[in-house]
Amino acid sequence: MSSPNNHIDYIEFKTHDLEKTKAFYSSAFGWTFTDYGSEYIAFSHSGLEGGFEKTDEPIVNGVLVVLYHTNLEQCIETIKKAGGTISVPIFTFPGGKRFQFKDPSGNELAVWLED
Question: What one-character DSSP code corresponds to residue 17?
Fold first, then answer.
């Protein structure tokens, strides 16, 4: 079931090692994981759904808050009018599509739509 528009729906972290990350969070907190290829894992049983994206880059701000909206194009226009900028245009992934934006302070968030 989809979340209401504009609610925080998902959170993404960066990691250098998916297997170590899974081992840590499952052992420390009892989270469960679903693998999506060699670059991404989703977690559940944490209070909020989320995932970890593998990266080789230094992790500076490793969290991406993901909002939900039923009309990505409309949401993009609203963000632009409010003073935000689109940092990653709409792209598809298994289960939906999303884009990323930066608020006027430079914080990056994402908005997604379920297939």
Answer: -
Q: Model's pTM, two decimal places?
A: 0.77
Q: Let me know: does 10 contact 63? Beta carbons within 8 Å.
A: no
Tokens (6 digits) for 36: 């999506």
Q: Quick one: which H or E segment has residue 82?
A: none
Model confidence at 2, in pLDDT bands (50, 70, 90)?
low
The tens digit of pLDDT for each residue in 58-91 reads 998 889 999 999 999 999 999 999 999 999 999 9
In angstroms, what is the C-alpha Rg of the chain? 15
CA gap 44, 57 in Å, rounded: 25
Beta-carbon contacts of 53 under 8 Å, excluding residues fewer than 6 positions away, are 12, 13, 14, 15, 39, 40
Sheet of 32-35: strand order equals 32-35, 40-44, 50-54, 8-15, 63-68, 108-114, 96-102, 85-93
pLDDT number for residue 1: 53
